[in-house]
């Protein structure tokens, strides 16, 4: 093995993940070389700050001026992009690498969600690998599992907890009664959050990942613009407490389902039964559930963010490259992709949790019930806290399965009732897990 040529790596971006990758390659060098069949060595890097102590040994690497420069070096066999962002230097460098026939490993879900189809075409045209295990569900080898381990299956649904920051926030709010902003700051310190954390809390990061997951599972193009996206900003301590009372836990889920009408892709907070397996996936952990016709239901759980788990996935891709292993980018060659119509969210059917803040006065409940009845939305339960005439109190209701479009019409009417003092808060209930 000693005389095998090393795989020479150039890394752009030495932040949380970049430094994690350098550290992991150094720490487990002997074992990685044994498994890869040859050593994997970082020979060159590009980063904005050369002086910063990243806790890893960079004395033997060459510093390139820019990420682009890194892609043009003859001593680099694979370009690793860990800068982030769907445009700018990350996109330009990845495109330059692929155009030159250099394999690419990236953790950049934003880039793949926006430009995955084009980048896959470029990679295929040049016959090079574009690998991205770290981009979806961090350390869980979910791309490998869907693309290889479960390759014999037709999938009906793939869903899961795809954002570690949001799961961490929801967990700490529920377990410790802490504030949203306070827990988000913690997630940032721990290296879980995106450079712009609104991508996490507004569901965009989970939607990036879902669109990639759907492309891999269903052999279709990445269609991020077709994902319905809602984040967790409006999930309050009150909703978390009501969820507990009703036997649910709130999770931000990404769901891609193949229906007769086409592909439904949505990211939003969900109430899941407290005794379901996914309800127990807490903190920074992610989970991905795949429903295949042959295998049935498979669930994978692991850390979805942070230096270690993400580096684990990046290095696994490097080991595959060192071994000479290669598969089509999104599981099928570009020409074999299937076009699937996308199903809009108003065609969704499901059950709903609705929380209203209501000025307690006679007739309000009748108005709410009337709006639901007129739209043929059938109520499952109602909780009214306290009877304090003249005060604002929460009223919570849950529905039986109904059409999203009908639910929206009913909510518009309910919102117009003068005694409803703030917009209804709605969380979809997911029973079929
Ligand atoms: N942090 C995490 O848990 C995970 C992150 N990712 C993805 O990994 C990528 C990197 O994320 P982090 O390491 O967390 O971000 P980070 O912000 O810690 O690191 C990015 C680094 O890139 C550097 N950079 C910016 N522009 C550059 C340029 N033009 N040339 C070279 N370096 C440049 C920045 O100075 C920074 O140090 C992103 O695409 C992110 O979405 C994926 C999975 C998990
Ligand atoms: N910000 C992301 C990082 C991993 O993809 C998350 O919190 O999941
Ligand atoms: Na992964």
From TrEMBL:
Molecular function GO labels: homoserine dehydrogenase activity; NADP binding
Keyword Amino-acid biosynthesis: yes
Protein EC: 1.1.1.3
Transmembrane domains' residue ranges: 7-25
Pfam families per UniProt: ACT (PF01842), Homoserine_dh (PF00742), NAD_binding_3 (PF03447)
GO biological process: methionine biosynthetic process; threonine biosynthetic process
Residues annotated for NADPH binding in this entry: 109
CDD domains according to UniProt: ACT_HSDH-Hom
Keywords noted in UniProt: Amino-acid biosynthesis, Membrane, Methionine biosynthesis, NADP, Oxidoreductase, Threonine biosynthesis, Transmembrane, Transmembrane helix
Annotated ranges, domain ACT: 353-428
Residues the entry annotates as binding NADP(+): 12-19
Enzyme class label: oxidoreductase
Ligand binding (L-homoserine): 194
rRNA processing among keywords: no
Superkingdom of origin: Bacteria
Active site: 209
Pathway per the UniProt entry: Amino-acid biosynthesis; L-threonine biosynthesis; L-threonine from L-aspartate: step 3/5; Amino-acid biosynthesis; L-methionine biosynthesis via de novo pathway; L-homoserine from L-aspartate: step 3/3
InterPro entries: ACT-like_dom_sf, ACT_dom, Asp/hSer_DH_NAD-bd, HDH, HDH_cat, HDH_CS, NAD(P)-bd_dom_sf
PANTHER family in the record: HOMOSERINE DEHYDROGENASE
Family: Belongs to the homoserine dehydrogenase family.
Name of the protein this chain belongs to: Homoserine dehydrogenase
Organism: Elstera litoralis
């Amino acid at each position: 093995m000693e005389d095998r040529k090393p795989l020479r790596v150039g890394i752009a971006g030495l932040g949380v993940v970049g430094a994690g990758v350098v550290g992991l390659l150094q720490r487990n060098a002997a074992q990685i070389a044994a498994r890869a069949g040859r050593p994997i060595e970082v020979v060159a890097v590009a980063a904005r700050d050369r002086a910063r102590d990243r806790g890893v040994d960079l004395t033997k690497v060459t510093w390139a001026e820019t990420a682009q420069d890194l892609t043009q070096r003859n001593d680099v066999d694979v370009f690793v992009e860990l800068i982030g962002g769907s445009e700018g230097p990350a996109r330009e460098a990845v495109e330059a690498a692929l155009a030159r026939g250099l394999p690419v490993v990236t953790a950049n879900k934003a880039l793949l969600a926006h430009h995955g189809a084009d980048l896959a075409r470029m990679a295929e045209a040049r016959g090079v690998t574009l690998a991205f295990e770290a981009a979806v569900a961090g350390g869980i080898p979910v791309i490998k599992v869907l693309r290889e381990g479960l390759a014999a299956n037709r999938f009906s649904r793939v869903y899961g907890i795809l954002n570690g920051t949001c799961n961490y926030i929801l967990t700490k709010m529920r377990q410790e009664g802490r504030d949203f902003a306070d827990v988000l700051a913690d997630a940032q310190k721990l290296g879980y959050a995106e450079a712009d954390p609104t991508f996490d809390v507004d569901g965009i990061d989970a939607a990036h990942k879902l669109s990639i997951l759907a492309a891999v599972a269903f052999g279709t193009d990445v269609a991020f613009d077709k994902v319905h996206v809602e984040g967790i900003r409006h999930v309050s301590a009150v909703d978390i407490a009501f969820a507990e009372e009703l036997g649910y836990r709130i999770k931000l889920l990404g769901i891609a389902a193949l229906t007769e009408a086409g592909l439904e892709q949505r990211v939003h907070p969900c109430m899941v039964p407290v005794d379901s397996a996914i309800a127990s996936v807490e903190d920074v952990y992610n989970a991905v559930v795949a429903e295949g016709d042959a295998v049935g239901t498979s669930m994978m759980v692991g850390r979805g963010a942070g230096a270690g788990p993400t580096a684990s996935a990046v290095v696994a891709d490097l080991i595959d490259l060192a071994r000479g292993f290669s598969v089509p980018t999104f599981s099928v060659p570009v020409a074999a992709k299937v076009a699937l119509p996308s199903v809009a969210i108003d065609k969704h059917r499901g059950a709903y949790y609705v929380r209203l803040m209501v000025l307690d006065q006679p007739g309000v409940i009748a108005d709410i019930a009337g709006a639901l009845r007129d739209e043929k939305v059938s109520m499952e339960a109602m909780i009214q806290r306290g009877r304090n005439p003249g005060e604002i109190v929460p009223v919570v209701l849950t529905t039986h399965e109904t059409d999203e479009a009908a639910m929206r019409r009913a909510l518009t009417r309910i919102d117009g009732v003068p005694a409803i003092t703030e917009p209804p808060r709605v969380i979809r209930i997911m029973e079929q897990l």
